[in-house]
Amino acid sequence: MEERPDRSERREAEVREHLANERTLLSWIRTGVGLISIGLVVERAGALAGVQDASIGASGIFGVALALLGCLTLVIGTAQFLRNRRRIIEGDFTPAVAAYLVVVAGSMALAAAFVVYVALQLLP
């Protein structure tokens, strides 16, 4: 016969889950702020180099796209934190991968666009 955990053990487990959820939120925040920062650097680097492909410039487009992806990461991370918090309290936690896939897909799309852009610049 299996022993049921007592109330204090369940409470300790719940506290550990909440702390892990908070650490995950901090990782989302670090990722979002990093993407925003890189976006600002990319945009400013193009402006400093005097690159003018179009009225806004390719570096401006990539920079803004990275900053928007960073903002989206912050929103998704916060929403996931709140959802996980509610599910931990209810005792009904099921992990979701959709949030991760959105950020990964956005990052890959930006990386692919950048590779195509650089390849077109290198062609005669």
Automatic annotation (TrEMBL):
It is a multi-pass membrane protein. Its main location: membrane. GO terms for cellular component: plasma membrane. Residues 16-86 form the DUF202 domain. It comes from the Bacteria. It is found in: Cell membrane. The chain crosses the membrane at residues 25-42, 54-76, 97-120. Pfam families: DUF202. Keywords: Cell membrane, Membrane, Transmembrane, Transmembrane helix. This is DUF202 domain-containing protein.
